[in-house]
Structure formats: structure tokens, C-alpha cells
Q: What sequence folds into this?
């Protein structure tokens, strides 16, 4: 399974290889979900919330949605819409390796 930091900073997949933004990961690896959102890194914040697991996932996604909506002229209506907007739904289980670029 891919670890939290690699999942948060994945910029794409090539087959079963996750491609990770190494510079962003190095600079922001210790950020919480809320801190990522506050810094405007909404895709990464959604990834962090999804990785948090079922007990914290909904609460963290709602926090990200609230921060996102406070900064946009086109607010989203739900957590599902937030996840669709950023294309993040689950942690992939089929990642064989990570390539940091």
C-alpha cells in the first residue's frame, strides 16, 4: 500500500506506478489536512482526508470543503462534489512502486 505522504503528493499514475512530486513532498510533508487546505493545496488536502481513514475522513473532508468554499466564487455543495472536482475517491490498492520526480 502507498504511504500517506506519497499518496498526498502523487501527481499521476503510470500503470501501477505512482508518480510523486518530490519537491512539494519535501516542502510540505508534515502539513495536516487543514494546513494543506489553508495553503491552497486542495487536491493534496482531499488526498490527506481520504487517507485518514473512515473515522476521520468525513470530518476532514467537510473542513476542506468549508475552506475551499470560503475562497472561491463557485462554492461546491457537498463533499462528494469536492471529491469529484479533484478526482480523489480512494487510496489505490494496486500501487507496486513510487517514482519521485
A:
Amino acid at each position: 500500500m502507498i504511504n500517506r505522504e506519497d499518496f498526498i503528493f502523487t501527481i499521476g499514475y503510470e500503470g501501477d506506478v505512482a508518480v510523486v512530486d518530490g519537491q512539494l513532498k519535501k516542502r510540505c510533508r508534515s502539513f495536516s489536512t487543514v494546513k494543506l487546505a489553508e495553503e491552497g493545496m486542495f487536491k493534496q488536502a482531499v488526498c490527506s482526508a481520504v487517507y485518514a481513514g473512515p473515522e476521520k475522513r468525513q470530518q476532514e473532508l467537510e473542513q476542506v470543503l468549508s475552506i475551499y468554499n470560503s475562497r472561491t466564487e463557485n462554492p461546491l455543495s457537498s463533499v462528494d462534489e469536492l471529491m469529484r472536482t479533484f478526482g480523489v475517491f480512494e487510496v489505490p490498492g494496486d500501487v507496486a512502486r513510487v517514482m519521485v520526480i
In short: The longest helix spans residues 54-70.
